[in-house]
TrEMBL record:
UniProt keywords, alphabetically: Carotenoid biosynthesis, Isomerase, Membrane, Transmembrane, Transmembrane helix
InterPro entries: Lycopene_cyclase_dom (IPR017825)
Superkingdom of source: Bacteria
UniProt organism field: Agromyces bauzanensis
Subcellular localization(s) per the UniProt record: Membrane
Keyword Zinc-finger listed: no
Topological type in the membrane: Multi-pass membrane protein
Any GO MF annotation of the entry: lycopene beta cyclase activity
Transmembrane segments: 6-22, 34-61, 81-98
Name of the molecule in the record: C50 carotenoid epsilon cyclase
GO biological process, one term: carotenoid biosynthetic process
GO cellular component: membrane
Pathway(s) this gene product operates in, as recorded in its UniProt entry: Carotenoid biosynthesis
Length: 110
């Protein structure tokens, strides 16, 4: 099994959660959400590229040749970038869900 196949379900869940929670927001908030998500993803991907390359070069870990797709950024295989992408998608989605539940719960507790 390749690292890409392992990452696919997580990416699918992240995209689905991000789209569903963003669609429930008013249009201006939805636009801000996607802009903030894109900025967060760019930062996380850049950091992943730098730090994974350093850690792989230092010999802290590696990847078996038969389990990678092939393309790399620095020394990091592209599959390494799935998890920060999922984090950038899921954190705002979970935040929206938790905030909504807290608001509903706050109204009920009076």
């Amino acid at each position: 099994m390749t690292y890409a196949l392992i990452s696919l379900p997580f990416l699918a869940i992240g995209v689905l959660a991000a789209v569903i929670t963003a669609r429930s927001l008013p249009r201006p908030a939805r636009r801000r959400r996607w802009i903030a998500t894109a900025i967060a993803a760019a930062v996380l991907l850049a950091l992943t590229g730098v730090f994974d390359t350093v850690m792989i070069a230092a010999g802290l870990f590696g990847y078996a040749d038969g389990t990678r797709l092939g393309p790399t950024v620095g020394l990091a295989p592209i599959e390494d970038f799935a998890y920060p992408t999922v984090a950038a998608l899921l954190v705002p989605a979970v935040w929206t869900i938790v905030r909504r539940r807290a608001q509903r719960g706050g109204d009920d507790e009076d």
